[in-house]
Amino acid sequence: MRPRLYVRAIVLLGLACLPSGQDLRAREPFRLILPEQKALSVRQPAMLPQVAVPNLPPPATVADPQFDLTPRYLSLDEAIDIALQNSEVVRVLTGVTASTSGRSVYDAAITNTGIDQERAAFDPQLNVNNSWNKLEEPFARPVLGDPTQSEIRAIRDDRHLFDFGLAQRNLTGGTAGLSVNNNSNRFGSGFFPLNPQARSAVEMNYTQPLLRGAGVAVNRAPIVLARIDVERSYFQYKSSVQQLVQGVIEAYWALVFAKTDLWAREQQVEQAGFANQRTLSRVEVGDANAGDLAQTQVALENFRANLLASQANVLQRQAALLNILGLPTYEAERTTPVTQMANQRVEIDWLVVNELAQRQRPDIIELKLILEADRQRLLISENQALPQLDGVALYRWNGLEGEVPAGNQISSDPGEFTDWGLAVNFSVPLGLRRERALLRQQQLVIRRDQANLDQGLHQMQHLLALSVRNLEQFYAQYERYQAVRVAARANLDQQLAQYNEGIVQFIVVLQAIVDWGNAVSNQAQALSQYNTELAILELQTGTILESHGIVFFEERFASIGPLGRLGPDHRYPAAVAPSAADERYPASDRPSEEHFDLEDPVRRGERVDGAAEIPKSLDEEVNFDMLEGDREQDGKPNRQGPIPDEEIDRLLPPPRSSQRLPKVFRGSVRR
Question: Which residues pair with 138 in a beta bridge?
Answer without folding.
Answer: 154
